[in-house]
Amino acid sequence: MSHQSIVGRNLAGYTLSALVGEGGTSAVYRAEHPEHGTVAVKVLREKLREDRTAVARFVREARFGSRVHHPSVVRTIEIGEGDAGLHFIATEWAAGELLERYARRKAPLAPDEVAGIVEQIAEAVHAAHVAGIVHRDLKPDNVMYDPATHNVKLLDFGIAADTEIGAEERLTRAGFFVGTLLYVAPEALSGEMVSPAADQWSLATIAYYLLSSCHPYGARTPREMFTKLLSQPPTPLGKAKDGLYIAPAIESVVMRGLSRDPAKRYPSVREFAAAFRAAVATAANQPAAPAAAPDDDETLLEKARALFRGRKKR
């Protein structure tokens, strides 16, 4: 049964009205419910319903999401199993669009807008950390953003990890990393359990991307990206691309969040966000960067043209 074919069906009281997103293991629908109104329903792919590990991960995502209570985290409404063994998670409907789509159209964004986004993500992630959960997959594709209200909602705890769980209970084997290479912290590449500092790296990478429309590492292949993450420092934000000006105070905060040594990052995501906001305020109170002086050849050419115009008038 294809995901598209279940549009219009009723799944445990939720009427699936439209397919709004698909991933390797599940699909997300807009749905209506007589009590909860418009909601999002994530459905595990039918071919995976007999895969015990896939089902366990799906249920774990729902349970982690239900443990984190914060206005910037989508609220979990129900975890269930419908007809034909379809496993689903129903959550509140988040207005707006994926931050990744918005950034592709609009980045580089103004530092003040980035600061608002970073602060809200940081608060959501801090709530997860307080609950003993490391998200491990922070990226613009897992964040809903409403440009009209500037509200942020964190999604998808699919590969989150409980910091207190024993090694024998983990669903990720040691030596296999999880996450998205563009946003994953270097220490996560071993596949071992990571600390909340790994989420700070990912958040700093999001800030870098929103400010520049670039990523801290450029690579042509996943293997090259993997190698660079393990062996090289990230590109300084101010050098992300030609013509980009980033205030030194802002660059300093972002690059500290991207320290390869987790101990050199800020003590928490909250402190990273606070430092970022302070740097944006400092930059706003400073004079704009001076315009680049024209090079010598252009200056001489302009003088020659002026002299020539003067002679013609005579």
Keywords:
Phosphorylase Kinase, domain 1; 2 domains; globular; 11 strands; six-stranded antiparallel sheet; single chain; 314 residues; three-stranded antiparallel sheet; 17% strand; Transferase(Phosphotransferase), domain 1; alpha+beta
Task: Please give a quick description of this structure.
Strand 5 and strand 6 (87-92) form a beta hairpin.
Write up what this structure looks like.
- With 314 residues, the protein is an alpha+beta fold.
- It has two domains: 4-92, Phosphorylase Kinase, domain 1 (2-Layer Sandwich); 97-284, Transferase(Phosphotransferase) domain 1 (Transferase(Phosphotransferase), domain 1, Orthogonal Bundle).
- It has helices at 52-67, 99-106, 111-130, 197-212, 222-231, 248-257, 269-284, 296-313, and strands at 10-11, 14-22, 26-33, 37-44, 76-81, 87-92, 97-98, 133-134, 143-146, 151-154, 161-162.
- The strands form three sheets. Strands 1-2-3-4-6-5 form a six-stranded antiparallel sheet, with helices on one face. A three-stranded antiparallel sheet has the order 7-9-10.
- A hairpin with a 4-residue loop joins strand 9 (143-146) and strand 10.
- Helix 3 (111-130) packs antiparallel against helix 4, helix 3 (111-130) packs antiparallel against helix 7 and helix 6 (248-257) packs antiparallel against helix 7.
- The longest helix is centred in the middle third of the chain and has 20 residues, at 111-130.
- The termini are far apart.
